[in-house]
Amino acid sequence: MRVAGFGYASSATIQTLRDALALAEAQAGPVQALAAPADKTVRLTPLALARSLPLIAVFPADLVAQDTPTRSARSLAARASGSVAEACALAAAGPGARLLRARIISPDHLATCAIAERTTP
User: Fold this and answer.
1) Burial 78-90 (b: 16+ CB within 10 A, else e)
2) What pTM did the predictor assign?
3) Superfamily of segment(s) 2-117
4) Residues near 22 by Cβ (< 8 Å), separated by ≥ 6?
5) Tens of pLDDT along 55-107?
6) Could you tell me which residues are beta bridge partners of residue 105?
7) What are the boundaries of each domain within the chain?
């Protein structure tokens, strides 16, 4: 399963999230699910519905359990994770997942998106 994970500011718009996803998919291919921190999935719901994709809520313990290649000071301070987008993608894709696209930053700098894939059932 291929999952796009998101991290975003509360001021991010649906267009911001679409732009971030489009940039990530242009490099890693289409996804089969979207993921975000559990307390922020509401903002991502319209995009999931528009794309007919499941939306996976990632809980704090699952975020901090992921080893991410990116180390953002903002993400570390807010969520104790080097990259919220990468951690969401990896956690939602499941055990053994690998990043296909490390976080990419939206043009307005309000969101990040990363894509992970698990190839084993």
Assistant:
1) ebebbbbbbbbbb
2) 0.93
3) CobE/GbiG C-terminal domain (3.30.420.180)
4) none
5) 999 999 998 888 898 888 888 788 878 799 999 999 999 999 999 999 999 99
6) 112
7) 2-117
Angstrom distance (rounded) from CA 46 to CA 99 = 25
- State the virtual CA torsion across 93, 88, 11, 76 in degrees, nearest 10: -170
3-state helix, strand, coil in the chain (%, to 5): 40, 25, 30
Q: State the Cα torsion 18-23-26-31 to the nearest 10°.
A: -50
Rounded Cα gap, residues 70 and 57, in angstroms:
21
Assigned token pair, 40: 């922020």
The count of other CB atoms within 10 Å of the CB of residue 96 is: 10
pLDDT band at 121 (very low <50, low <70, confident <90, very high): low
